[in-house]
Amino acid sequence: MLYLLPIRSCMIRLFIIPVLFLLTVFLPIQAQENIPVWRFDTLEKYLNRQTDTVYVINFWATWCGPCREELPDFEKIHQAYSSQEVKVLLVSLDFPNQLEKSLLTFIRTNRISAPVVLLNEPDASRWIDKVDPAWTGSLPATLFYRENNRHFFEKKMTYVDINQVIIKLLTD
Amino acid sequence: MKALLIITSFLLATTSYAGEGYKVGDKAADFKLKNTDGKMISLSDLSDAKGFVVVFTCNHCPYAKAYQDRLIEIDKHYKKKGYPVIAVNPNDPEVEPGDSFEAMVTRAREKGYTFPYLFDEKQEVNKHYGATKTPHVFVLQKNNNGELIVKYIGAIDDNYQDASAVKTPYLKNALESLLNGKDPDPALTKAIGCSVKVKPAQT
Question: Which residues of A touch B170 (CB under 8 A)?
Fold first, then answer.
């Protein structure tokens, strides 16, 4: 029997590698099951927390092309900083009646594990300036803050862009 | 790798343009752009108008689509009073194929647009105005010297989701103020919209 061992361990190895690969591909990321629908007063509290955490708040929508392009980088940032005081929140401005069809489908398909909320506050003129007075209203837009230190960007960002702002806020 | 670099530089170049643009009180420049009927149109062609509702809008954006019918209604009502709607598509069709001139022609016909729907092919007008998104409204009023003064910038109303739930029709209020000889208040509002899709930078 002994002469069979090397062959068997080789086969086992051949078997284990694809199984491990499949596990890493399909298992770890759990997309959100339900999307909370927020009014602006709830979001406003989230935009003004006086803690040591760096908050990264990305405003996006599934119908927005540049938003869809940058979203995977926000997801990567969310995962890369999961053990640090950095929180990513994806604030969707999708139409509330598209929540199931567009938003949930999108985050499941793209396996987005960063928290997503839907902001249902149609009169943007009453809240846009409270996010940042420089925001003209186009998507995507991202607010980074740590206590009173704030940075706002009304443009599509890359992983490097996002990471730079976070490092700045963590080290300032 | 080369392809990746090309794609990356292309994506970087398609980020929204956030220029300075006009502020309320500024003098606005006229423009000459192609309408969906193939004719070139300038604001000066409409010499009877007291002013204009210049709306940067497009085909593809859900926020812009939500306002198509409302713009027709506003145009029908205020054109008679001297303030016609002039719609301008500022997007580069290479970035957003749904906003090509051909698609504009189809949309204008299908919706029965009562106003010109102009193609800002060189993307110069939206930069002058400082339109960053669709829809983005600029109300202009002719002064006694025939100059066009920016009187209102911003949103059409306070509810993109549901026209019947609108509480404050910002644009109509601004037009009513102007018709009553007053300056709009508020003269500047904001709304969420799709970023203007800018042509990739030439390398």
Answer: 125
